[in-house]
């Protein structure tokens, strides 16, 4: 893959996957699973109006601008699918009940009810599979070049869910590999005004860690998922502030990876 700011690869099967930046750049790979609320032709319709399609149920508002700024600051490539999660959620296994959801929060998704098998298959082959194939191809290319790949998935979450306020400003999500997460927790402990969620508002047990389980943990790569409350990244200045903060914290975490392991008795 050469440097690009468009589709990943060549051909219609990758037309909805966007790669921005140099594939070989830096030590990080930035992912944004829910970057877009776009509904491309040929995959059916969720059956919702424009107002609902602007809500968090259709995408992660603010996540893509932050991911773009973060990728630029870290000199990293950014990959994301350019289609709404209401067509198919690229951060869920294809056999998960909410892969093609019929209800999101308290909103029914009429276009997904009784979805014909051929349309579901088209969403898998046209959106889900090309996205994950592009991640694999990028990581394979970086591995062949001897590059480090720390995977960072950028998401956003709604401040109120089913009537319950969420107090966190940033959620740091991790699974078996908590190397990056632990460093981020240490950094943000020095910022008491920032409320940090430890596997909040979600955790891997909620089925939200699919992309990083498949591409990070399966390869033994350091990985972390970042959930930013979307009312805190609604404007360009706020997006820039969060990108700068996260870039500094992630750079420190990357340096920590180079430190020799400390035996338990020496802590």
UniProtKB/TrEMBL annotation:
Gene3D superfamilies: Zn-dependent exopeptidases. Keywords: Hydrolase. GO terms for molecular function: hydrolase activity. The keyword Magnesium does not apply. This is Putative N-formylglutamate amidohydrolase.
């Amino acid at each position: 893959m050469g440097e690009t700011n468009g589709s990943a690869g060549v051909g219609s099967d990758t037309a909805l996957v966007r790669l921005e930046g140099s594939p070989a750049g830096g030590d990080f790979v930035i992912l944004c699973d829910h970057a877009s609320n776009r509904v491309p032709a040929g995959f059916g319709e969720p059956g919702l109006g424009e107002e609902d399609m602007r809500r968090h149920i259709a995408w992660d508002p603010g996540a893509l601008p932050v991911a773009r700024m973060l990728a630029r600051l870290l000199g990293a490539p950014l990959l994301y699918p350019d289609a709404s999660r209401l067509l198919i959620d690229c951060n869920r296994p294809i056999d998960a009940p909410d892969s093609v959801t019929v209800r999101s929060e308290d909103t029914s998704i009429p276009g997904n009810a009784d979805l014909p098998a051929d349309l579901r298959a088209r969403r898998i082959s046209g959106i889900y599979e090309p996205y994950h194939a592009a991640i694999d191809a990028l990581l394979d290319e970086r591995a062949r070049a001897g590059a480090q790949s720390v995977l960072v998935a950028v998401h956003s979450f709604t401040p109120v869910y089913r009537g319950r306020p969420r107090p966190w400003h940033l959620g740091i999500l991790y699974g078996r590999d908590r190397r990056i997460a632990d460093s981020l927790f240490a950094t943000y402990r020095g910022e008491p005004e920032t409320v940090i969620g430890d596997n909040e508002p979600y955790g891997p047990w909620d089925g939200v860690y699919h992309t990083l389980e498949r591409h990070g943990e399966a390869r033994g790569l350091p990985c972390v998922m970042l959930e930013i409350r979307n009312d805190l990244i609604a404007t360009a200045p706020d997006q820039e502030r969060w990108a700068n903060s996260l870039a500094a914290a992630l750079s420190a975490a990357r340096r920590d990876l180079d430190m020799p392991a400390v035996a338990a008795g020496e802590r």
